[in-house]
DNA sequence: TTTAGGG
DNA sequence: CCCTAAA
């Protein structure tokens, strides 16, 4: 910093203070330098000439040397294209690993190379000046004097006299400078062949900027770019314009995007044998993915760090730069920078939180009230688990959905099962049912039950209407009643009984639905549906018809043929119902059916049906368990089937 | 998975 | 309706 100030404060721009020397010495022993230095940017033309840089081409090098004192332990994990170096900073002791792509490394090396050159030039110039006794008056002067003839140029390249071995460490410091104010080193590089062999500067290139980038022997330095070029580069890299004039910032951002491998075309080239070689697409893509994954993890942290360092840079160094920028602009840049970082962060970060929110939303979508339980699930888990809802909920919901779907699925009317809210008269049965819920029932169960009741409620409401409008006077014709049947699966027991009355299909009766679907948690955690869904007459008819067609005992087949649309009627249910029907039919006293039904207030099963049942039973030699043939033989007039009410 | 039967 | 054994 002091050096910078010294330089900048020199009105005549004399480049005289010890900073230069120190910087020069930095080449041989970088760790001795602790202060950032501002250097003037020069452009190396293709013919090897050094063109004086414009004002806005001033670059700051000190930033790169900021962490000179850091101890770096290089652990190369030599893979194919990805190599890692773990760098431990003495200040924090934190150890981070990250992978860089070769191309990125190449860029960094190129930068390093260029810095090296600059330093070398400065050194040379200083020597020259000292020897000549001609003072330098400004950066521009320096640059002007930095003509190519004053520097060793070979093959169009500025030859670096720096020992190669030191380059990696320089590169490292260069690389980590900006982002590690808080200590963790998030990036790692490796000593690449390109660097070590660096007699020539090699760098990666934005292919689409080739024309704009100064190029010498296929080597391009990011630092050589002017503001305008940097802007263009920025645009290419980030896909948006920038008004930032801070070159440092631009370069940093671009470099960062490179190291993060987030951008296309950033890793098109790699350095090999001092030449820029086009990278294979597979390589770059694959590595880029891996790289971005890793870096995305680090970005959060790095953002903070970066912020700090950038604050330092912007307020400290940049302000002192000769570059014609006002402090307000610096502030603006800083703002932009921050926002830019945030934007990038937004893009990269979503992983965990996004998933979390996603799962949460999903669960809420299904059952808002149960979101709490979902929160506990799958924090930090990835999609597969986070999508899992509590088994109970899933079950009940599935049930709900299927029920509603099925209730209408068989018919021609397909009604979306969602958001059909029934707003009709309040249901008393439900209230009572809820009131007497099993105490063991958890809150979640209650809620889900409520939900279920609601949905099925709506569904049944609708189907009831349909049923009424379509309810045929003659129910005894299975085929004709079939479609009707399928539309009225969900009906409240009480109403069912009313409807079950054969002759009076009771359209007036407010067939309010309300099936008491009560799900009871099982010891195993499963859900048992503890729901009594009364059999409708249609269902009974269908069952009888199915039995007559397929034979008793082939419940699955009957279920498949006649009850395909009744998801809530399992084959076991059919079997049970048939069993009951059988009992009823054999216990039935033909003359008394009406009495029976009235007596128990239950919907009677039409005698016709019962007779048919008995007929079928006898056909199949099925006899109710406790039915004595004598009773049957006697005509069964005296036996009152109380169980008929079970229908 | 389906059937049959007990509860 | 649920549960379970048996096939």
Automatic annotation (TrEMBL):
It comes from the Eukaryota. Its main location: nucleus. The keyword Nucleus applies. Signal peptide: none annotated. SUPFAM superfamilies: Homeodomain-like. InterPro entries: Homeodomain-like_sf, Myb_dom, SANT/Myb. One of its GO terms (cellular component) is nucleus. Residues 21-30, 622-633 have a biased composition (Polar residues). It comes from Glycine soja. Coiled coil: none annotated. Residues 527-586 form the HTH myb-type domain. It holds the Pfam family Myb_DNA-binding. It is found in: Nucleus. Residues 535-582 form the Myb-like domain. Residues 1-30, 359-385, 502-521, 622-647 are annotated as: Disordered. This is Uncharacterized protein. Keywords: Nucleus. The lineage of its organism: Eukaryota, Viridiplantae, Streptophyta, Embryophyta, Tracheophyta. Residues 359-368, 502-513 have a biased composition (Basic and acidic residues).
């Amino acid at each position: 910093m002091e050096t910078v100030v010294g330089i900048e404060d020199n009105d005549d721009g004399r480049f005289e203070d010890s900073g230069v020397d120190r910087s020069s010495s930095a080449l041989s022993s970088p760790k001795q330098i602790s202060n950032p230095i501002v250097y003037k940017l020069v452009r190396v033309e293709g013919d090897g000439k050094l063109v004086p840089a414009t004002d806005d081409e001033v670059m700051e090098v000190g930033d790169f040397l900021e962490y000179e004192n850091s101890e770096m332990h290089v652990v190369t994990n030599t893979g194919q294209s990805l190599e890692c170096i773990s760098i431990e900073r003495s200040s924090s002791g934190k150890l981070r690993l990250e992978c860089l792509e070769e191309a990125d490394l190449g860029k960094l090396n190129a930068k390093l190379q260029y810095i090296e050159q600059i330093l070398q030039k400065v050194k040379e110039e200083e020597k020259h000046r000292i020897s000549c006794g001609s003072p330098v008056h400004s950066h521009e002067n320096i640059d002007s004097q930095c003509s190519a003839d004053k520097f060793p140029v070979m093959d169009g390249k500025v030859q670096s006299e720096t020992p190669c071995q030191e380059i990696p460490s320089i590169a490292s410091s260069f690389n980590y400078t900006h982002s590690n104010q808080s200590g963790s080193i998030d990036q790692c590089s490796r000593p690449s062949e390109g660097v070590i062999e660096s007699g020539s500067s090699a760098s990666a290139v934005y292919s689409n900027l080739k024309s704009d980038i100064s190029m010498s022997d296929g080597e391009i330095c990011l630092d050589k770019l002017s503001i305008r070029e940097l802007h263009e580069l920025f645009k290419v890299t980030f896909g948006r314009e920038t008004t930032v004039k801070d070159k440092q910032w631009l370069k940093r951002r671009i470099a960062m995007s490179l190291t993060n491998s987030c951008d296309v075309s950033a890793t098109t080239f790699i350095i090999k044998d001092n030449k820029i070689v086009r990278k294979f697409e597979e390589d770059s893509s694959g590595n880029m993915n891996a790289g971005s994954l890793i870096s995305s993890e680090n970005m959060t942290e790095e953002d903070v760090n970066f912020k700090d360092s950038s604050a330092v840079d912007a307020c400290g160094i940049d302000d002192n730069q000769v570059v014609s920028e006002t402090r307000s602009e610096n502030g603006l840049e800083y703002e932009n920078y921050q926002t830019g970082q945030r934007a990038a962060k937004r893009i990269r970060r979503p992983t965990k939180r996004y998933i979390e929110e996603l799962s949460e939303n999903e669960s809420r979508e299904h059952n808002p009230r149960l979101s709490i339980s979902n929160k506990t699930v799958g924090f930090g888990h990835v999609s597969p688990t986070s999508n899992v809802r509590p088994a109970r909920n899933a079950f009940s919901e599935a049930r709900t959905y299927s029920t509603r779907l099925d209730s209408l699925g068989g018919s021609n009317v397909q009604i979306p099962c969602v958001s059909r809210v029934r707003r009709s008269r309040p249901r008393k049965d439900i209230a009572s049912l809820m009131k007497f819920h099993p105490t063991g029932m958890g809150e979640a169960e209650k809620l889900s039950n409520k939900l279920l009741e609601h949905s099925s409620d709506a569904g049944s409401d609708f189907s009831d209407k349909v049923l009424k409008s379509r309810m045929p006077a003659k129910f005894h014709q299975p085929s004709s009643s079939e479609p009707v049947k399928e539309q009225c699966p969900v009906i409240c027991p009480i109403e069912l009984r009313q409807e079950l009355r054969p002759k009076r299909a009771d359209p007036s009766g407010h067939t309010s639905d309300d099936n008491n679907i009560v799900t009871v948690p099982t010891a195993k955690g499963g859900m048992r549906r503890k729901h009594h869904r009364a059999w409708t007459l249609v269902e009974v008819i269908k069952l009888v018809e199915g039995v007559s067609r397929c034979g008793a005992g082939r419940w699955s087949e009957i279920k498949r043929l006649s009850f395909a649309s009744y998801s809530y009627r399992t084959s076991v249910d059919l079997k049970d119902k048939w069993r009951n029907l059988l009992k009823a039919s054999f216990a039935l006293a033909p003359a008394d059916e009406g009495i029976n039904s009235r007596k128990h207030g239950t919907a009677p099963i039409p005698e016709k049906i019962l007779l048919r049942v008995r007929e079928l039973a006898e056909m199949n030699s099925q006899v109710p368990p406790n039915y004595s043939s004598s009773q049957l033989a006697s005509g069964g007039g005296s036996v009152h089937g109380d169980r008929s009410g079970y229908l």
